[in-house]
Structures are given as C-alpha cells and as structure tokens.
C-alpha cells in the first residue's frame, strides 16, 4: 500500500498528491484541501502507542497536538501542522501549557496511555511501560538499568561499564505521577505557523515531570529559559531541579546509546559515575 492509499483509506478522502518528509513519513494533500501526515511502522504496537499517546496528551489547556485521523496495523495518519518559527511568546505559552499538561496526571509511574500497549517504543528503541507506585525504583529499573543493558547488548557499553548504572542513586522529591510526553527533545516541539508550539511524536507515559524538562534541556530547545520561567510560574518544581537534571537525562542518553552508539554511551557513563 502506498502512503497516498493509506491516507485515502484512513481519512475517507481522496489524495491529490503526496511527498516524502523523512524516513517512513509522508505528507499528503487531500482533494478537499486538507493536509495530513502519514507514518508507516513495521511494529503494529508502535502505531497503537503513538495514536494513544497523542489522544492522551490532547488535554484542554495543554500544548496542542495533531489530531489523529486514523490508524491501522502499520499506518498512522494525523493532521499536518504548518511549520513556523520559534518565538519568545510561543515559548512562554508552551511552558505554561506543559505545566498544565503534567498536572493532569497519570494512574501510576510507568503507566501507558489508555488503550496503549505495555510494550511501546521511543524512536526505534523498545520502551516497556510497567506501572509502579514509586518513581525511584521504577525509573532505576525500567529507564536506567534496562537501557544500560540494551546498550551493552548493542556494543555501546562494556559489561563492566553497564554495571556502573546499577549503582546510580535515584532520588527525587516525592510527587504524584505526571502525564509526560516521554520523548520531549527539541525536535519534538513543533513551532507552528499559528504562533504556538505543538507536541509531536510522543512516547507518553506516567513519570516524573522533571524528566520531560531535563530532556528539553539535553539538545537545546529554542528559548528554553523562557519555557522554564513560564513553567515555574504555573507549577514550580521542588528546589534543586537543576542539580537533578543529569539523573533524568540518563534515560534519553542511554536510548541514544542503544540507537546511535558509543558517543552517547560515554556521556551517560560520565553522568552515572557522578551519581553513584
């Protein structure tokens, strides 16, 4: 099935034309003047996970997310959002909206979105959502040790290096589970032509809200100082958040080590040694 065929079937509207955007992602122009994005996955669980994530994050008052138009075993179709440019005003509203989204909560740390699978993915890496009543034990087992072992399996860490992550001290202020985007690096903040910052490509689950904030900081989100200041206006994190950033960044760094190799593994390892 072509991307145009998938878009036609999932929207119920003929496609006038389509073009690739990146990898297994296409833009399709509908005959009625609408425009959608179509993504193909090899793993049916990944389709369900992203669709459920987008629907769970579509909370009033939170950052906007693309509307899911339809999905099946291998295809996901969502509304296209016209790109724009980052601005200080959009960054501030994004920070406030992200705080409101986090505050809507989750049933447990590690809980998947309603209807989402336990075995989901983050990028092209596997991600298991296993509900837990406490954040430190869950984060250590399912977001640090698990990915250190996967990185070792991929050859990015030695067995001795992976063992360092077993000794990481996982400590954070006690808070209820937040509703996380889950893969909130700067590329998944879509600065749109409507003057807003949208959330795309989520790996949503229940977690500690500081994980989303730390991931924004990892690869340089535009106007991050404005985003964080506005977030603090709505829902200030506990004192010492900056000192906890390296702990929360272990998760995305290890995911990148699994996918992209030794350079990210060494960054994660340096942080882990400082946290033992």
UniProtKB/TrEMBL annotation:
Q: Superkingdom of this entry's organism?
A: Bacteria
Alphabetized, the UniProt keywords read: Kinase, Transferase
What Pfam families does UniProt report for this protein, alphabetically?
Fructosamin_kin
Kindly give the SUPFAM superfamilies that the UniProt entry links to this protein.
Answer: Protein kinase-like (PK-like)
Q: Does the keyword Hydrolase apply?
A: no
Q: Which residues form a coiled coil?
A: none
Q: Which Gene3D superfamilies match?
A: 1.20.1270.240, Phosphorylase Kinase, domain 1, Transferase(Phosphotransferase) domain 1
Entry's family note: Belongs to the fructosamine kinase family.
Which named protein is this? Fructosamine-3-kinase
Native source species: Saccharothrix longispora
Top-down, what is the taxonomic lineage of the species of origin? Bacteria, Bacillati, Actinomycetota, Actinomycetes, Pseudonocardiales
